[in-house]
Amino acid sequence: MTGKVKWFNNQRGFGFISGDDGKEVFVHYSGIVGEGFKELAEAEPVEYDVIDTEKGVQAVNVKGV
Known about the structure:
The protein has no helices and five strands. By secondary structure, the protein is mostly beta strands. The protein has one domain: CATH 2.40.50.140.
């Protein structure tokens, strides 16, 4: 899936992605692909997969495009 980062709190390590399909998806820093400190910038375009969790849907395999 593709979308843009709605907001991401780098200190707390989570935020939301606004999908191109209009749905908002929770993202945790552990779902970001890459080495070192993992962060996302507001409005950054991203690709991601979605999984179902006990608390709802969550973005994983998140990477910038």
